[in-house]
Amino acid sequence: MSDRLNPFAIAQAQLAEAAKVLELDPAVHEMLRWPLRELHVTLPVRMDDGIVKVFHGFRVQYNDARGPTKGGIRYHPDETIDTVRALSAWMTWKCAVVDIPLGGAKGGIICNPKEMSEGELERLSRAYIRQVGRIIGLEKDVPAPDVYTTPQIMAWMADEYAFLKGYNEFGVITGKPLELGGSQGRADATARGGLYTVREAAKVLGTELKGATAAVQGYGNAGSFAHSLGQELLELKVVAVSDSKGGILNWDGLDPEAVAAHKQKTGSVVGFAGAKKISNAELLELDVQVLFPAALENVITSENAGRIKAKISAELANGPTTPEADQILYKNGVYVIPDFLCNAGGVTVSYFEMCQNAYDYYWDLETVHQRLDRKMTAAFHAVHEMAQSYKVNNRVGAYLVSVARVAKAMKLRGWV
Ligand code: GLU
Description:
Layout: H1 7-22, H2 26-33, E1 37-46, E2 52-63, E3 69-76, H3 81-97, E4 103-110, H4 118-132, E5 141-145, H5 151-165, H6 189-205, E6 213-217, H7 221-234, E7 237-243, E8 246-249, H8 256-266, E9 276-278, H9 280-284, E10 290-293, E11 312-314, H10 323-331, E12 335-337, H11 339-342, H12 345-359, H13 365-390, H14 394-413
Parallel strand pairs: 3-4, 3-5, 6-7, 6-10, 10-11, 11-12
Antiparallel strand pairs: 1-2, 2-4, 7-8, 8-9
This protein binds glutamic acid.
């Protein structure tokens, strides 16, 4: 992977830009450039055909100055240690930007869950906890779902952890099913939180969202809820959506329930009746008002950034835009809501889940929504104002907010 597209090199370059503006002390900067700890694990799993397959995985704990580390676990064939490092850094900034008392971490296993049976996935998930269990814990590091991991996987992991400890400790992992200590509102929290920031962005830009056209790249948890909730909460007209197999477009709008039913049946949004097939690349360049990159890293690069026509790019994915692309978007007036702000709703409700687990007392959906809205709205305005006052793009603005908070915690603790 070239350095230009290596997510960890990108995360370090983004930090360097903020460090320059903040005139960050060199020791603080160096501390924040690297993970505090990382664990590499090797996982033997008996597959359905009786043969043992050996998988490789990681857990990176980036920085815990502000509290226990927090972050999801990804199952992906292209997972690398550098991707996990970058994602754990972004989790650090994410928890700081919404001002929750947690640090950042991330985990990953190199595997293709699409080619694995339910039983194989369960055995892999349990094997991961048998190795990683020694470094996680509700006061140390709390995993959650991410790309291709689900509440069911969190349930297996919580169960395996309970056997390691000898008792239930549901707060060790979030994004669990409701029946096992999950929180109301966790399932759609990433998209919902992102939509709250889009609502606030429209206010500061003076844009009307009712009937505004939108395109969603990626149809996993964040993307599919961005489609349905975008319509429900903001009355957006979602005209295009995509997944790893391709995209679909209908300028009259796409019905979220019908598209979800089609994907459920066929495994992809592609082939949906009444829509034109387009590629993921074409989707990104559509002349829509709001674009939601909601899949993976590095989809908006120096190559296509100049052709992005959306007024707002709401980054539900982690790391969708490269630094070179950021500069082009900023110059062209595209209002970017950067990833670790836009998609912080997931970890915010994960934090609510941890609070509820700690008290064993559960909130209603309305309470979760109100508290999420308050957090996202405050974070959005902190970033927007920072970016405006320093005359930098919103990503640098978000770094300025988060890095200052983490640096302050490290200083108070006497680390630097
Ligand atoms: N995986 C999500 C993220 O990237 C959620 C993390 C969490 O809930 O801990 O923000």
